[in-house]
Amino acid sequence: MGNVDNKWALILGASSGFGKATGIELSKHGYNICGVHFDRKSMQPEVDAIKETITGNGAKALFFNENAADDEKRNMILDSLKEEMDKESGDSQVMVLLHSLAFGTLRPFITDNPDDAISNKHLEMTLNVMSHSLVYWTQDLFRRDLMGKGTHVFAMTSSGGHEVWRTYGAVSAAKAALESHIRQLAFELSGFQIAVNAIRAGVTDTPALRKIPGHEDMLSIATQKNPGGRHTRPEDVAIAISNLANENNTWMTGNIIGVDGGEDIAG
Q1: Residue 15: which CATH number?
Q2: Which H/E stretch holds residue 162?
């Protein structure tokens, strides 16, 4: 993988779960990491440890604790990233964009008390963060010429895009919309040899999953039915993304790729 001298990976949701594991894995393979996360100050030691691991692998670590769904923050981050990339000699390009934002409303649609039900504001926020923001980040990277031939765009989806779990309705809608955005972006970017795919991970024990009521049951069920005898780990997804991100592999685009040890097919 070597036509671009200075490869960057832009990770949205870089401080935990799939984003953290993927940033660390890609840094082992010559990618500098630009990480975006949105955390309280108490998380800073964890973020510092991630950055130290990345730099220990010989890569640069440029991290921003900002809301990735905010238009002004997105532009600021991309301007800062472009400035950093312009310092480098030779060709420099964002070769991987990973959208792994997990911030949404976990409320049922129908409740006895209207105050407990999902609202317009909740639903729109969830879809904007977990789905529509992928389009805006991709647009702005493309317009700045920060991505091009050989770039891979990945977004994290789940079986929740086609299955039902109480309180998961808004997130399920966001995942379904995300998969639609993946198809459209893949169609429009194919002529530029930019690949766009969704990664459908199996049930994984991440901070985002632990916020879902009944997540213990989800993990137990996944472990019992998975042919591999365990649930998915963030590192499984990170390794898959690293293997798929070869810059000569852009003909593989517009897909929902299962990384779940066979969980989804096990029924």
Answers
A1: 3.40.50.720
A2: none
